[in-house]
Structures are given as structure tokens and as C-alpha cells.
Amino acid sequence: MYFVSNIVKVTIPNYLASLPIPDSFGGWFRLGFRDWLALVPPTVAIGVISYYSYITIKKANEAGNGQVNPGIRKDINKVVDFIDIEDITEKVSLCRCWRSKNWPYCDGAHGAHNKATGDNTGPVVVKHKENK
Ligand code: FES
């Protein structure tokens, strides 16, 4: 525990105090090459932390409030679709990710959803027995 405590209370504050951050706006124009070079690691670290924070917040927002349907027919209480089996000539892919713009059919939107969230959803494919 001492190791972590020392890093947080001594090492990081000493490192930050040693950075050549100017006291005034004009000071940025007087920084030398070595000064700018010294600012690269903390800038990269802040960038990486910001990026992963953004990704984490984005994923949390996409997870929403527990609802699986982000926007299909939100004006009704329950989304129910009927498809006549006789209308299916060969096979049909039905969306299970709730992201399709061609609901209730899969339009491939599950791919972007899976990539963005780490999910693994995909369609259910219904086909005639003779088309196996
Ligand atoms: S678009 Fe939703 S499962 Fe393919």
C-alpha cells in the first residue's frame, strides 16, 4: 500500500510540479523544444484517459435505462409484428437487436451495434424446411 500511497502523494505531484507549464498565456510562446517535449507524455496520457472515458460513457449511454428498444415505434405500448409463413418464399431474417431501419427485418445494423457495445446479437432466420 505504501507504493500506491507514495505514487499518489509524492511521485505524481512532484512530476506535475516539474512540468514547464507557463504562468501566463504568453509563456506558451516562450517554451523551448525540450519544454514541449516534456509536455508530450502528460498530454498523451490525458488524451488516452479522455478517449477511454468517452468510450465508456458512450457504451453506458447506449445501454440506456434497461430498455432494449432504442426507437422503434416508441409511441405504442408494445411492438408486435405478424408475418404470414406463406409470405416467406425462401427465408427471412428477423431483427433481434432492435436497431434495424427495416423493422422487423434485419438490415445488418446489428453489426455496428455489436462493434460499438461488444454485444453479440444477430437475427433469427426463418426458412422453409425444403430450403435447408
Ligand atoms: S439489424 Fe437487428 S439483428 Fe440484424
Automatic annotation (TrEMBL):
Keywords: 2Fe-2S, Endoplasmic reticulum, Iron, Iron-sulfur, Membrane, Metal-binding, Transmembrane, Transmembrane helix. It is a single-pass membrane protein. One of its GO terms (molecular function) is metal ion binding. It is found in: Endoplasmic reticulum membrane. InterPro entries: CISD1/2, FeS-contain_CDGSH-typ, FeS-contain_mitoNEET_N, MitoNEET_CISD. The keyword Transport does not apply. Its cofactor is [2Fe-2S] cluster. One of its GO terms (cellular component) is endoplasmic reticulum membrane. Its main location: endoplasmic reticulum. The chain crosses the membrane at residues 36-55. One of its GO terms (biological process) is regulation of autophagy. The keyword Transmembrane applies. Residues 78-116 form the Iron-binding zinc finger CDGSH type domain. Binds 1 [2Fe-2S] cluster. Belongs to the CISD protein family. CISD2 subfamily. This is CDGSH iron-sulfur domain-containing protein 2 homologue. It comes from Bicyclus anynana.
